[in-house]
Amino acid sequence: MSSGFSKFYIEGEKESFTTYFSEDLSIRSPIFMNLPEPSPEVLWRPMARYGAYIATTDICKVPWHWDPSLIQNPLMAIIGMPGAGKSETVKTLILRIKEKDIDVPVIIVDPEGEYHVIVKQLGEGVVLNIGIEHYINIFDRPSWNFNYQLWVRKAITPGILKALRMSQAQAPLMMRVLEKSIFDVYEKIYRFDPVNKETWKQQDPTLLDVVRQIESDVKPYLEGRVTKQPPLFRTKMALLERLKRWVEGEGTDFFAHPSTIKLSDLLNQPVVVFNIKALPNDARDMFTFYIFNYFYALMEMLPPLPTFKLRLILVFDEGWILLKSERGEESPLAPLFRRARKYGFASIIATQNYKDVSGDILPLVGTVILLRIRDADAVKKLAETLKIPERISNQIPTLPTGKAVVSIAWRRTDFQNANIPFLVNVETAVEPQITLIMYKKGGAEDVFRSLRSQMSRT
User: The Helicase HerA central domain covers which part of the protein (predicted)?
Assistant: First the structure.
C-alpha cells in the first residue's frame, strides 16, 4: 500500500491532522503530479464539522466536501440554465449539510413549490404556503427597537423598487415619494416618534396602509376639489397603480395583511420552506429581498462569534435579485463578503437568470458552481469574471446534468492549484466509499489496522 502524508489544521481544532491516502486513491490520482485540481487536503473534509459532501472531482476523483471554514465567506452561488440540475444540486447540498450538523437552521425560499421534499425526507421542519395559508408583512422589523427609519431605507424602499424593476438612480423622484408616503404612515397614522423608542413597540404598518395614504394624498385632485395638480401628482398616481396590485383583490392581496407568523421564531425550526409559488414574479423578488434583509439584520443583532460557526443558512432558489448590483446601489450581498463569517450567516443562492448576475459581485462569493449554460456571451462573461481556463469554459455549454465547474475563494492559497476553477461530478446518491481517512489520535499502527479492517469489509 502506498501512502502520501500532509499536515494541516481544521479551523477551531488545536490538533493537526495527518492525511493518509489509500492505494486506490493514489493509483487513480497521483498526488505528486501537478494536476489541474486543488490539493486533496482542502477537498476531502469528512471530519470537518460542516464538511458536506457534494461531488467528486472530474480528473482525480477526489470527493469534495464543501467546508465553509476554509473559504473566504460562507456564500454560494449556483448558476445554470433550466434543466441543468440546479434545484437537485441545492437539495443535495441541504440534505448533506443537515446530515453533518442537525442543529443549524436552514430557511429556504422556494419559488416553485418543490422543496417540501426536504422536510419530508428529513422528517422534520415546516412548509409555509405564502399568500394562501400564511402572510408575511414586509414592513415587520427584526425587533421592536430596530430603528424604523433605518429599516425603511435599508429594506423596504429598496425592496419595493427592485420588485418594480427600478433602481434608486433610475427613479429618484419615485423613491422619494414612496419613502415619504411610508414615513407618513409610520409617523402620522401609527404615531411612531423618531426620538421616542417607546412608540416603536407597536405593530408595524402594511403596504396596504401605504396605498391608502397615497390614495388620500391624490383624492382631492381626482375629485376636482383642487384643480391645480402639484408636480408630484403623476408620480404618485403611477406609484399607486403599481402598488395596488399587491394589496387588492381576493387571492392577490399578498402584502395587505399583518404577518401570521413571527419570523424570528422560525429559527427554532430545523428546516423552514417558504413556498411562494402563489406569488407573481415581482412579488417573489420583493419577498426574497425582504427575507434576506430580515434575517441578516437579525444575525447582526447577535454578538460576533470568536470562532467560525454556522448560526443560519438561507437558501434562495431564483435569488438573482441578490446577485445584481445597479448603478448607485450596492448589492445586498456586499456587506456579507466581509461579515458573514463573523456572524455565522451562510447563504446559498441559485439562479437561471445568469445575464442579471453582476460581474463585480460574483468573484467575491466564496463558492460559485456553474452548471450547463448555452448562451455563449454569458459563458464568456462568466469565464472572464471567474478566470476559468479555456479548456474548462469550452465545456460549460455542453455539460451533462450533474457535472459542474466550481470556483472557490480559499482563505489560504499555499497549496496546489489554489486559484484554479475545477470540474466536478455532483453526486445526488450516497457518498462514495471512503478512500481517504483522517485520524486525530493514534499512531501509524492504529491507522493501518483501521485501514485493513475497512478494506476487509469491501
Answer: 76-291
Contact 425, 371 (CB under 8 A): no
Torsions phi, psi for 364 (to 5 deg): -90, -10
Report d(CA 149, CA 141) in Å as an integer.
11
Residue 116 identity: H
**pLDDT per residue as tens digits for the range 340-381:** 889 999 999 999 888 778 777 888 899 999 999 999 999 999
User: So what's the pLDDT on residue 172?
Assistant: 86
Measured distance CA(52)–CA(40) in Å, rounded: 15
Q: Could you tell me if 268 and 388 lie in one domain?
A: yes
Q: Is 59 in the same domain as 86?
A: no
Question: Looking at 318-435, which runs of residues are DSSP E strands?
Answer: 345-351, 367-370, 403-408, 422-426
For the cut 80, the answer to whether the pLDDT of residue 435 exceeds it is no
The tens digit of pLDDT for each residue in 286-318 reads 999 999 999 999 998 999 988 888 999 999 998
Question: How many folded domains does the chain comprise?
Answer: 3
Residues of the domain holding 194: 148-244
Residues 231 and 176 in one domain: yes
Residues 77 and 62 in one domain: no
Strand extents, DSSP E, 306-415: 312-317, 345-351, 367-370, 403-408
**What pLDDT shows up at residue 458?**
40
Within-domain flag for 117: yes
Amino acid at 166: M
Which phi and psi angles does 164 have, rounded to 5°? Answer: -85, 5
